[in-house]
Design goal:
GO terms for molecular function: triose-phosphate isomerase activity. The chain is α/β, with parallel strands linked by helices and 241 residues long. It has ten helices and eight strands. The chain binds glyceraldehyde-3-phosphate.
Length: 241
């Protein structure tokens, strides 16, 4: 059975001071969380050292939101895998639709980032998912199959998390119906020859929806944007029934 991974993706939210404010109530609320749930906070680069110092010895895993494929070089605005691991980072989000949409991320650059992350010992969280237009045209599976085929060349499936994030559900409040998310995630697993890796759902996950989402047999966790910014709400998500 794949590991359960509950990850918050803070995107471009929270200063260092706000990160410290989040931690105290959140840590209190997860004191009784079952040990077999991996809890990850994927935060802006500036917050990584705050987490690294504050969470020493904690069960909370630190995640970043991008990683470059080169070890170093003239790549303004990028960050290397070693810079992340030095701060105790364990996970990194790769191929989020916002990076694909706004920053020219392609399946090829996604593939390079995935391999560099794994080579440094990081566990990448690969995001895939279709637009509303693709869904309406019946192209969901074709699109995701292409993202998987091109993105996963040479990638080790035993150190990978996949997040199924339908783009139309991200930040819209229009959560994908849990049975439909379960169906697509089961289909993704079939494309990977049944590999037992964690496959998450992401897209307007809210505390009041989490129990139903996590009751779905194919769904091994969630990647949470907006609702991960509130410590009590995100703790409720982590503590799903
Ligand atoms: O990475 C997280 C996803 O983009 C979901 O964001 P959201 O929960 O705000 O819809």
């Amino acid at each position: 059975m794949a590991k359960t991974v509950i990850a918050g993706n803070w995107k471009m939210y929270k200063t260092q001071a706000e990160t410290l404010e989040f931690l105290k109530p959140f840590v209190e609320q997860i004191a009784e969380t079952p040990d077999d749930r991996e809890i990850v906070l994927c935060v802006p680069f500036t917050d990584l050292s705050v987490l690294s110092n504050a969470l020493h010895g904690s069960r909370i895993r630190i995640g970043a939101q991008n990683v470059h494929w080169e070890a170093n070089g003239a790549y303004t605005g990028e960050i290397s895998a070693e810079m992340l691991t030095e701060l105790g980072v364990r996970y990194v989000v790769v191929g989020h639709s916002e990076r694909r949409q706004y920053f020219g991320e392609t399946d090829e650059t996604v593939n390079r980032r995935l391999k560099a992350a794994q080579a440094a010992g990081l566990t990448p969280i690969l995001c895939v998912g279709e637009t509303k237009q693709q869904r309406d045209a019946g192209e969901t599976q074709t699109h995701i199959a292409q993202q998987l085929k091109a993105g996963l060349v040479g990638v080790n499936l035993s150190n990978l998390v996949i997040a199924y994030e339908p783009i139309w559900a991200i930040g819209t409040g229009d959560t994908c119906e849990s049975k439909e998310a379960n169906r697509v995630i089961g289909w993704i697993r079939d494309q990977l020859n049944g590999e037992d890796l964690p496959i998450q759902y992401g897209g307007s996950v809210k505390p009041e929806l989490i129990d139903e989402i996590m009751a779905q047999p194919e769904i091994n966790g969630v990647l949470v944007g907006g609702a991960s910014l509130d410590p009590i709400g995100f703790a409720r998500i982590v503590n799903y029934q």
